[in-house]
Write a structure and sequence with these properties.
single chain; about 210 residues; alpha+beta; Alpha-Beta Plaits; 2 domains; four-stranded antiparallel sheet; about 25% helix; about 25% strand; elongated
Length: about 210
């Protein structure tokens, strides 16, 4: 078993996870493995797993994928068959029971929002984000019915006309990060009152479209 760190420019892809009839990052990785003979045509590498998924257009600096492969299957070998938008930049041998999705203890997403200060209130956005930090039931910010209690950390950083929103957790429910960041952005821009955060974190169901 070998674990690889992979970076990619997500703009040409319809997300990380393989989908029918559209290009994905996972397709590019599988195609490279097939070209190298790591797996047969129309198959994925043995015991393959990825640490997480990203949406269409989202890029990554340190995605982790792991699978069984020969010793000669190095980042350099993978890169010889990967497109320029996907690069393997590190690898390490892993125990046979290593699982890239279940083993990680921390995941981090960073959203780079165009939010000029003349149209955006950083203090309001920070207050919204801080209210979401810690342990909460995020059932209103995910379509999932289970696993909605999460412990969120991170912070906001101003960089000129852009606001970087960093969200960390051991794991995320589906669409949680995107919806949380959208809520923070709505509060910071004035499109939603700060009370919407309390509504989202409260026990009563709230339609995400109204956040």
């Amino acid at each position: 078993m070998r674990a690889f760190r992979v970076a990619y420019d997500g703009r040409p892809y319809h997300g990380f996870q393989r989908q029918p009839d559209v290009p994905t990052v996972e397709d590019a990785i599988f195609d490279a493995c097939r070209a190298l003979g790591v797996c047969d045509d129309d198959e994925e590498p043995t015991d393959y797993a990825a640490a997480g998924r990203t949406d269409a257009g989202v890029s990554a600096l340190a995605q982790t994928v792991a699978f069984d492969c020969p010793d000669w299957c190095t980042p350099r070998a993978l890169n010889s068959e990967l497109p320029g938008t996907v690069r393997a930049w590190a690898a390490a041998d892993a125990p046979d029971d290593f699982h890239a999705r279940h083993r990680p203890t921390r995941r981090e997403y960073v959203y780079d929002l165009h939010a000029p200060t003349e149209r955006f209130d950083d203090d309001r956005a920070k207050a919204a984000f801080d209210a979401c930090r810690g342990d909460h039931d995020f059932h209103n910010l995910t379509p999932d019915d289970h696993g909605t209690v999460r412990s969120i950390d991170g912070g906001l950083t101003r960089d000129g006309d852009f606001l970087l929103v960093r969200v960390e957790a051991g794991g995320f429910a589906r669409e949680l990060v995107r919806r949380l960041v959208s809520l923070v952005r709505a509060v910071g821009s004035g499109a939603a009152p700060l009370s919407k955060v309390d509504d989202a974190l409260g026990p009563d169901p709230v339609s995400y479209t109204h956040l």
